[in-house]
Amino acid sequence: xxxxAAQIPLWQQAWVWFEANKKPALWGAGAVVAVGLVxxxxxxxxxxxxxxxxxxxxxxxxQQAGSAARANIAEAYLKVAASYPNxxxxxxxxLFAGSSLFVEGKYAEAKTQFERFTREHTGSPFRGEAxxxxxxxxxxxxxTSEAAAxxxxxxxxxxxxxxxxxxxxALACLYEAQNKPELARNxxxxxxxxxxxxxxxxxxxxRLEELKLKYPSLAIPAAPPxxxxxxxxxxxx
Length: 237
Fold this sequence. Notes:
By secondary structure, this protein is mostly helical. The chain has twelve helices and no strands.
C-alpha cells in the first residue's frame, strides 16, 4: 500500500489532500486573496493621494505668478497641508506656508507654522529648514538673543548640511552686532572656507574684511603654540 501511494503523481496527491480538506483550503485561499486585495487597495490609495497632493501643491505654486493671488498664497499652502497631512506634498506645503508668511512680513505667524512643522514631521529631511525658519523669524522680530541661541543649536545639532552656511552667516552677523568680533570672525571664516565659489561665501569674505578693519587685532595671526621639545645640548668632545 505504501509503495502504491508513493507512485501516485504529486498533483494527484495534492488533489486528494484538497478534496479531504476542501473547506479549510478554500477559507485559507480566500483569506490570502482578501489580504492581497486590502494591501493592493492601500498602496493604490496612497499613490492616488500622493498624486492628488502633488497636483494641489503645483496648482498653488502656479498661483504665485499672479500678484493678485499672491496675497493669499500662504493660506492656499495651509489648505493643501490640511487636506493631505500624510503626504510628501502636504509636508512641503506646510513649509512653504511658513516661508510665504515670512516673506509677507508676518514673522510671528511664520514662526508658528515652522514650529508646527517640527512637531508634525519629526523625521522629515526638511526639519533643518524649519528650524532655520524659526531662528530667522525670531531674528526678524528683534529677539536677537533667542535667535542666536536657535542658530547655535541648529549648527551644533547639524540636522541638515544645506542650512548650515545660512545659519553660520546669520549667527556671525548677530555676534558682530553683539560686539563679539572673535566669534563672528570664526563663523565668517568657516562660511567663506566651505563656500568659496558661492554668493554666501563671497559675502562672508567681504564681511570678514570689514570686521578686520573695524577690529585690527583680528588681523594679527595667532602666535604658534609653544613646543615642548628640549633645546639641543652641545656635544662634549
